[in-house]
Automatic annotation (TrEMBL):
One of its GO terms (molecular function) is sequence-specific DNA binding. It comes from Roseibium alexandrii (strain DSM 17067 / NCIMB 14079 / DFL-11). Pfam families: Ada_Zn_binding, DNA_binding_1, HTH_18. Its EC number is 2.1.1.63. The lineage of its organism: Bacteria, Pseudomonadati, Pseudomonadota, Alphaproteobacteria, Hyphomicrobiales. Gene3D superfamilies: DNA Methylphosphotriester Repair Domain, Homeodomain-like, Methylated DNA-protein cysteine methyltransferase domain, Winged helix-like DNA-binding domain superfamily/Winged helix DNA-binding domain. This is methylated-DNA--[protein]-cysteine S-methyltransferase. Its cofactor is Zn(2+). It catalyses: a 6-O-methyl-2'-deoxyguanosine in DNA + L-cysteinyl-[protein] = S-methyl-L-cysteinyl-[protein] + a 2'-deoxyguanosine in DNA; a 4-O-methyl-thymidine in DNA + L-cysteinyl-[protein] = a thymidine in DNA + S-methyl-L-cysteinyl-[protein].
Length: 353
């Protein structure tokens, strides 16, 4: 199994630039101080001759280094931020509340600081996250068989048109365009990296995407066409299964998914996805390696396109494919999620070593 590790010069340059693309994936140990840090640590940068780089916190501790008190490398960044912790607690307490900047002012918070913190940790602002949470309430009401007006109220929208517009922006069409007697059913799936939409029939999973993925509306429309309009809201045993497996995955209990998949794509695209399924948790491949494994070494760009067209996120692990230099490269769910998934999967790799 190839493990793509950037060279020393690349990592030291990332340290000097506080490059967030390596945060959580590499740590620097500083011989002159005896501490180890994130590459984004705000402390004064050490001389290169005092630096060594490791992939995990455990390796740094085993090497005799102690964690930095400024960047707290042993603590997930978001949970270490008291502002983020307080706002997420409020969001869970009042999921349908319509948050705005005046609410942040009343809590004594600076909206621009909150915006930057949430963008850095989650790839979205707090207000965008709050809007997603409101839509979740409406979506859940529809999946439970509620009427559109009931979903609108549950989501905290005063205007029916505003609710339809927000819903269509996320899923490509207004609630009324979905079937009331569907073959394919869509429901909300919760994960620590944000909400996902799962679409399944009674035997296979057809789509699993993060709610804020830009391609989601077009993907839903395409499934709607393929199903001759028979796409609606609800839950199937397949959605229950993938929710259980995702929970186990994020809790570090099980890295393998067994949910049956429906692969919608060209024969080559499906071959790429099947090759991705062979990459174990904690493993990394380059686009070139995937192309070689398929016997198509010249098809690197085609592999990259197929990788980007994946619509069953996490399960088909397109996040395990990186640039040849070890850079994260693109990810439809956001680079911050790709980084978090890789960081999580290191625990699986260490357990198997």
């Amino acid at each position: 199994m190839l493990k793509i590790r950037p060279d020393f010069d690349t990592l030291y340059e990332a340290l000097l630039n506080r490059d967030p693309s390596y945060d959580g994936r590499m740590f620097v140990c500083v011989a002159s101080t005896g501490i180890f840090c994130r590459l984004t640590c705000p402390a004064r940068k050490p001389k290169r001759e005092n630096c060594t780089f490791h992939e995990t916190v455990a390796e740094c501790i085993d090497a005799g280094f102690r964690p930095c008190k400024r960047c707290k490398p042993t603590t997930p960044e978001a949970s270490a931020d008291p502002v983020i912790k307080a706002l997420i607690s409020e969001l869970e307490r009042r999921p349908a509340y319509r948050w705005g900047e005046p609410d942040l002012h009343r809590m004594g918070l600076d909206p621009s600081t909150v915006r930057r913190s949430f963008k850095r940790h989650f790839g979205m602002t707090f207000l965008e996250m709050a809007r997603q949470r409101r839509l979740q309430e409406g979506f859940s009401a529809l999946a439970d068989g509620g009427k559109v007006i009931e979903a609108q109220v549950s989501a905290g929208f005063d205007s029916a048109s505003a609710f339809r517009e927000a819903f269509a922006k996320t899923l490509g069409q207004a609630p009324g365009a979905f079937s009331t007697d569907p073959l394919l059913k869509a429901d909300w799936v919760s994960t620590p990296l944000g909400p996902m939409i799962a679409i399944a029939d009674q035997s296979k999973l057809h789509l699993l995407e993060f709610l804020d993925r830009k391609a989601l509306p077009s993907e839903v429309k395409k499934l709607q066409r393929n199903a001759n309009g028979s796409l609606g809201f609800g839950r199937t045993k397949i959605i229950d299964q993938i929710q259980d497996e995702l929970t186990g995955f994020f809790e570090g209990r099980k890295a393998v998914f067994e949910t049956p998949l429906a692969l919608h794509g060209t024969p080559f695209t499906r071959d790429v996805w099947r090759e991705l399924l062979k990459i174990p948790a904690g493993g990394i491949r380059s686009y070139s390696e995937v192309a070689h494994a398929l016997g198509r070494p010249e098809a690197v760009r085609a592999v990259a396109r197929a990788n980007g067209a994946n619509q069953i996120a996490v399960v088909i692990p397109c996040h395990r494919v990186m640039g040849a230099d070890g850079s994260l490269t693109g990810y439809g769910g956001g680079l911050w999620r790709k980084q978090k998934l890789i960081e999580l999967e290191r625990s699986y790799r260490l357990a198997d070593s």
